[in-house]
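Hi support team,

I'm opening this ticket because the web form for multi-chain structure prediction keeps timing out on my end. I have pasted the exact lines I submitted so you can reproduce it. The total is 281 residues across two entries, so I didn't expect it to be a heavy job. Is there a limit I'm missing, or should I split the entries? Thanks in advance, R.K.
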Amino acid sequence: MSMTTATIRVTGSRLAPALFAACLGLTVLFVAGHVQTATLHGAAHDTRHANGFPCH
Amino acid sequence: MFSRILTSALLAGAGAGLIAAFLQLWFLQPVLLHAELYEQGRLVHFGAASAVPAHLDLGGLDPLRDGLTLFFTLLIYAGYALLLVALMSLAEQRGVAITARSGLVWGLAGFAVLHLAPGFSLAPEVPGVAAAAVGPRQIWWFVTVFAAGGAAWLIAFGGSWRAWGAAVLLLLAPHVVGAPEPDHFAGTAPPELAALFAARSYGVAMAGWVLLGVLAGYFWSREAA
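Hello R.K., no limit was hit. The queue was backed up. Here is the completed structure from your submission:
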């Protein structure tokens, strides 16, 4: 009978870089998709509508 | 690790964002421009003396306006991609294989979380439809997206009936509470245009997200080599 042993090697925590990347992504989505200053709203207007974000 | 996430996300976001922007300008922009004429009162479809034709010459490309749409679509897809690849990296740490093929399912999940879930009660809006104040709608949108994201993770990796039950509750709760709605129906855009816009918005987003998932899976697995 043979036995296979699977080993998962954890090369340092991925949590911190993943969290940082996710926060960066959310910030981009918030600024480009949701901030209601007149300039940003005007410039991103069509993209916001197309992506289903609440626009105005 | 962060540079691997960033590289994969930016490459995938650029590829998917470019195609999504192209589809958006081709299929959505004419509907949006047409609806804006009703929003601005330059066209009226109810109570008009004569019937309003459904087809209209809306002009060609507008370099500045369409350029901004391209820029912001690339930006939004970079944001989507950063979220997606960050979660892919965490899943891989738990022993989940990330490939271009599995990325397709990740992309479909992203579409469901960021478009279908909030859109179920807050449909994609064409200009010229009535809606509640924008602030409460944005808060509801973010809460719903977070709830649906948590639900998608639990469905995929929860592995127990308790987790799947919690996922169902997370998916249902925002819609049971309800999205902010307008007090009166006062939209000026024809329902035909509003329906077409919502349907095409989903179609473009689904194509963009499937491509984003496949590209993110491809670049993520390639960066490991």
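A quick check on our side: Chain A touches chain B at residues 8, 10, 12, 14-15, 17-22, 24-29, 32-34, 36, 43-44, 46-56 (CB under 8 Å). Let us know if the file doesn't open in your viewer.
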